[in-house]
Amino acid sequence: MVAIKKFIRVNERIRVPQVRLIGPDGNQLGVVPIQKAQELADQSELDLVEVAPSANPPVCRIIDFSKFKYDQEKKEREAKKHQKQSRLKEIRLKPNIDEHDYETKVKQAIVFLKKKDKVKINLFFKGRQMEHLDLGRKVLDKFIIDTQNDGQVEREPNLEGRIMSFVISPK
After folding, report:
1. How far is CA 55 from CA 33, 34, 59, 110, in A?
2. pLDDT of amino acid 55
3. Does domain 11-81 bear CATH number 3.40.640.10?
4. How far is it, in rounded angstroms, from Cα 143 to Cα 145?
5. Would you say the pTM of this structure is higher than 0.85?
6. What confidence tens digit (pLDDT) does each residue in 85-143 have?
7. Separation between Cα atoms, residue 40 and residue 42, nearest integer Å
8. Does domain 88-170 fall into CATH 3.30.110.10?
9. HSE-up of residue 115 (Cα within 13 Å, Cβ side)
10. What's the CA gap between 167 and 162, in Å, rounded?
């Protein structure tokens, strides 16, 4: 995955006649010509950084650029940490599953749904079990009923080859 870095103009790379300037201590210095803004930044031995290029006139700030860049990256990392990506968990069943094994699978599906993950239930048929698709359908219908308090069916059960499957998403 390639991260797209937005380009921040600094010092001589800022090519506009006037900028709205913010001083090193955070106070507004008003709209000033770019030469004066650069002189003020040089006097305080800091960088002139364009913080809002789309504003009219662009907003520039007198700060240490490396510290600014570090703070931006830190904010991005923190925002990334709080993102929740929905994952798809898979549970495998057979049409002749025992009651206790079935209950264990239901409990596991509920745990996944409470963690806000989607759950795909796959029911595998072997050999002559293909002649009794109704038994597999009964198991899946029972599974839907047992998990309806924690999730909702996103994709109805359908048969693909020897696998009958459906997807439950969290409520």
Report:
1. 15, 15, 7, 49
2. 84
3. no
4. 5
5. no
6. 778 899 999 999 999 999 999 999 999 999 989 999 999 999 898 888 899 999 999 99
7. 5
8. yes
9. 14
10. 17
